[in-house]
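Notes to self after the call with IL:
- keep both proteins in one doc
- input above output, always
- annotate only the second one for now

Protein 1:
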Amino acid sequence: MVLSLVGSSGFYGGSKVREHPIRIYDTMTRRKRQFKPLNPPEVTMYVCGPTVYGEPHIGNLRTFTSGDLIRRWLTRRGYRVIYVMNITDIEDKTIRDSGAAGKTLREFTDHYTGVFLRGLDLLQIGRATAHPRATAYVPQMVEFISGLVEGGFAYEAEDGVYFDIDRFPGYGRLSGVDLSKTERTERVASDSYDKEDAQDFALWKKATPEELSRGIFFESPWGKGRPGWHIECSVMSRELLGETIDIHAGGEDLVFPHHENEVAQSESLTGKQFVRFWLHMRFLKVGGRRMGKSLGNYVSFDQILEKHSPEALRYFYISTQYRRPLDFTWQAMEAAENTVRRLGNTLDLVDDALRGPDDNLDYGEREDGLLKSVRAGEEAFGAAMDDDFDTPVALGHLHAVAGAINEYITGPANKGALAEAARVYRGMLGALGLFEERRGPDEAADRVMAAVLGLRDDLRKAKNYAFADMIRDRLTEAGVTIQDTAGGAAWRMSKG
């Protein structure tokens, strides 16, 4: 079933598409192009999701953070984004490692799917419109492969069904592979291989004795077996988003062979353009080398959480544009932690000022200067994000807005002007997926806390310090920090 989003507000609350041209670097054409979806304001977007055979490392999560950032910005610009991120639960590695763990394939992949989704939630990566499992679409994969065989694009061999890359004249356009310079053999059964080994690839793999004994197989016209990895995304994107999609994204390691093979098999079957814009996220590196499980140099998400907040990791990711390599160091993480602490402190200062006394009801030069600075920062932030999601430049404008607010709060604040500046600031943070739990002052909570702090103040005046301290301690346990100042007690929600 092809997904659709009903209503003008969109799935994530977008508004009418604004006249803000967005330019995106397209891997296929190797240049920035103005983004124009096939059926505006709807945008169909597919990001290759995880192969669930182990805990995600922070290199994997950079790709998914980038996908979330792109979806957020398109939504902010008024598009209705139908976003699909698959779960690869049947593939060479999931079969291999589930067997080694002594678990069924479903039990094994269910566990690591849960681990992955936990990581998304902690990093404030919004759930996709759909997270389809590959195993749920095997009948459609069989139908897709049958169409390729009938069209003469694929053939059956002793161990499975293979796509004939010589039948697709455009093979190599996406990755730049030159077939005349590769070492050609008849075909390759492995899901992963290098450009130098470009050859016919597996669409369907006939079951091995181990897979038969473990019940890991599906019925097909070619006997018991399972799909090859590359066919899975072609089928799920077609089923959920249609034959031509606006955006297909993934890590740079997927350009070849995975995405190259997707183009070949999809366009051979439909005769239509498969993807309008290809986006690829660069590697996260350690010591100049790509981070990867196979290289043994990866840092797990939980290792990060032992020392730093998810907010800091997300900031670290977006401190470099998605199309640039990013080198991981613990020093860089510490710097990111300190930076998000300063950004959060601006929110604290705003909340305190908005809860404070009305010492300034006028609109003068200070207020005018604040709002002019904030609106200029918002405009420049948007221009940076419209330019291929240039987060480092956008962050510079975010910090400028935070600085303007901080400077303004050093004097008596006009709450109306400050609230407008805070609205812009929170909107910029939200576009980047930062501090989503900080929605600003809650009037009901303010009233409750005013009553509680008033009671505590009365107890202190009556010298009943034990009871007053008990109130403070109970609030601390509930995640509320109390700070006594010359102007009275202030409160805020504790972080983490």
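Protein 2 (the one to annotate):
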Amino acid sequence: MGRLDGLFGRKKGEAGEPNTAEHAGKEPAATVTEVAPVQHEEKEKSAEKPVEYVNELNLSGFKDAFTKYARETRGEESKAALPEFAWDGESLKIKIKCDDADDTAFLDLAGIYTKYFDFYNYKEPNSLERLYADNGSRGIKLSRKHDNGTAINNLDMMLGTYTGLNFEFGVNKKATSKDLEFLKDVWNRLNLSGSAMSVEDRLKALGVEVFDSDAGWEAIGGYDALKEEVRKTVVLPVRNPDVYGRITEGTRVSAKSIMPKAVLFYGPPGTGKTTMGRVVAGQLDVPFLYVPIESIFTMWYGESPRRLGKIFKLAESYERCTIFIDEIDALASNRDEMHEESVKVMSTLLTRLDGLKTRPGVLTIGATNRYEQLDPAIKRRFDSEVYFGLPDAKDRAAILGLYAKQLAVPDRENLASMTEGYSGSDIERMAKNVERAYAKRVIEDGATGLPDAEMYLDYASGRKNGK
């Protein structure tokens, strides 16, 4: 069962939190807000009665108290707007909007709200809709209409890609100080979305890994021609925009920037594409945002394209940065073979790679092992394509210098000749296995020193012979 189904799928009598009518005398389970039920039945008149905000006149006091709390706790950089109020003759209508909230905030707020109502009897189920509109206002909506003795009523909560999160509800004259505490919890969660979490924390919450890369060219063994190509097509233009801009102004009738916005790294697995991305970020001295494919796709319809757009939007908070999307073929395969949700994800990616909705300073690097599966429209969006092939013997010897530096140069060259077809990650894996085997010798047999060339050759020969 999905998280939303768990939150909104219960009706009276189904499994879940106990309600007061069916479990009289039992203490309800703890909730996010510790909200206690308002007692309405005659037999419960002896219970302690709330004294705050119990009549229409004192709804003004309820409003003032909530407004005061929101003003005092609102973060300096919060995207949560102060609450808005309107009186409809029967209840106080309250609206809170947060432009920077995400689906996690939506689910948290829904959880706060639903647990609040678990203390009451209600017969009508919640109305939950997963929305998708062609204008990009995709999102989720929760509606709750009721009048069963609760002070908080008529909830409408909508999360959209470009509309942010809107939380609207009514408060009637039965409201108590306990209801005010519930609203404070709602406000605190929205306030958190817009201020307390740093950009890096919000990216990490979406599954994006953020590095301050200090990787240099030496992090990649060999591949001298490849390094020079990346330096020429990516690093030099980004580090010297004025030079490239002056040239285009003198050569083109309509000057158009030739600064790279998106670069594609493609080739067999283990050939250094991700490492090269970190090197580029290190050479540009900008944050490196690693986006694994699982951070984009979710089980909820319409959420995956919204998450991808959110990642790009947060990346623009940096003056400059590099976004590295691994396995980009999973986002941008041939559209004829994709289901509707994946098509929408690819449309979002196309828009971002075009630069129409992405601020200059954000460099996107896509990596794939399946170049032939990429949709032609995606390929056209990349300013440059860089092929990462398997290393030749010279490159393999250089890579061995990173992982077996104790070996003499002739030994590394000999080992390189024995490892034809190895990728850089294959060589690293070989080195790890040899080191572990030698560590066992040190522990059990008292061996000293470091692994010799013979151990590496034995590993390579065993793999070659299928052992």
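Annotation: Residues 3-196 form one domain. The chain has 15 helices and twelve strands.
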